[in-house]
Specification:
Radius of gyration: 14 Å
Structural class: alpha+beta
Number of strands: 4
Strand order of the largest sheet: 1-2-3-4
Number of domains: 1
Order of helices and strands: EEEEH
Largest sheet: 4 strands, antiparallel
Shape: globular
Length: 78
């Protein structure tokens, strides 16, 4: 079975000023690039929440690196 990508870019015409990064691996989340809001798609135990305090910012940084790379690739294709 083919593996899904770790991140996807998304947009929505109802929110024209926002672009979203969807993280498909645990912990799954949707990041609004415009304002930095994160919607976690998981239920976390207390231990998970403590780990997320450390790992969450790293994953979000990785998401932003993905976003910037994708923007560069789009501009290179034009």
């Amino acid at each position: 079975m083919k593996k899904l990508p770790e991140f996807l870019l998304g947009d929505n015409t109802e929110f024209p000023n926002s672009t979203y990064i969807v993280h498909l691996e645990y912990p799954r989340f949707i990041l609004n690039v415009a304002d930095g809001d994160v919607e976690w798609l998981e239920e976390f135990t207390q231990q998970d929440q403590e780990e997320l305090q450390v790992e969450g910012p790293k994953i979000i940084e990785k998401a932003m690196i993905f976003y910037e790379r994708e923007l560069r690739r789009y501009s290179e294709d034009e």
